[in-house]
Amino acid sequence: MTETHVVAICGSLRDESHTRKALTHALDAAARADATTELLDLREWDLPVFDADEGEAGDALEFTRRVREADAILLGTPMYHGSYSAPLKNALDYCGFDEFENKTVGLLVVAGGNFPITALEHLRSVCRALDAWVLPHQAAIPRASAAFEGEGDDWDWTDEETAERVAVLGRDVVQYANIEPEPPCLESTENVGADD
C-alpha cells in the first residue's frame, strides 16, 4: 500500500495567518496518521487572476501538478463577506476535474466573528461541482483572534476543543483518502467547466 499524500491550500495571504496556523496543525495530524504532507501557501505562488485563454500563466502548471498528485486535499480560508477568499477562488479556478475528481477534500474556515457556515457551504458546493468527495467533518474556527496565542512559529491554541476539531480533520482526510465515491453527483455531470 502506497503512502497517502495530503496537500493543503492556504487561502490567506496574511503573514500572521490563523488559517495557515490551523492548516499546519491539520497537516501535523495527517503526518501522525502516516501521510506525507505539503502546504501550498498561496503567498509563494505566481497565479495571476485566472483567464481561461491564459490557463498556463505564471506557476499554474506546477501548482496544478502538485494538487493533482495529492491523494487528498485540505482547503483552508479566512471568511470574507460571508464566503471564502479571492486568492483561494483564483487558485481553484486554475484547477478542474483532473485535480479534484474523486479526491477526498477537507474544509477549514477561519472567521473573525461568528461561525463561518456560509463559507463552508460555498466551498462544499465548489468541490461537489468538481465531483470531489468532501468529508462530512469540517473545521470552523470562529472568533479566531481568541483561538490562538503567540506569534510567528511560537504560537499555541487557547482552546483544546478547537485544536482537536482541526486535528480530526487532518486524521480524517488520511483515513478516507482512498474512498471511491459513486455515482457521480448531478452537479459534476451538469457543470463541465468554463466554456465561454
From TrEMBL:
Name the PANTHER family on file: CHROMATE REDUCTASE, NAD(P)H-DEPENDENT FMN REDUCTASE LOT6
Family from the record? Belongs to the SsuE family. Isf subfamily.
Question: Oxidoreductase as a keyword?
Answer: yes
Query: Which InterPro entries has this protein been placed in?
Result: Flavoprotein-like_sf, FMN_Rdtase-like_dom, NAD(P)H-dep_reductase
Under which EC number(s) is this enzyme classified? Answer: 1.-.-.-
Spell out the Pfam families in the cross-references: FMN_red
Q: Which residues form the NADPH-dependent FMN reductase-like domain?
A: 5-144
SUPFAM superfamilies (alphabetical): Flavoproteins
Query: GO molecular function of the protein, one example?
Result: oxidoreductase activity
Needed cofactors: [4Fe-4S] cluster
Put simply, this protein is called: NADPH-dependent FMN reductase
Q: Does the keyword Oxidoreductase apply?
A: yes
Q: Which UniProt keywords apply?
A: Oxidoreductase
Q: Which chain positions lie within coiled-coil regions?
A: none
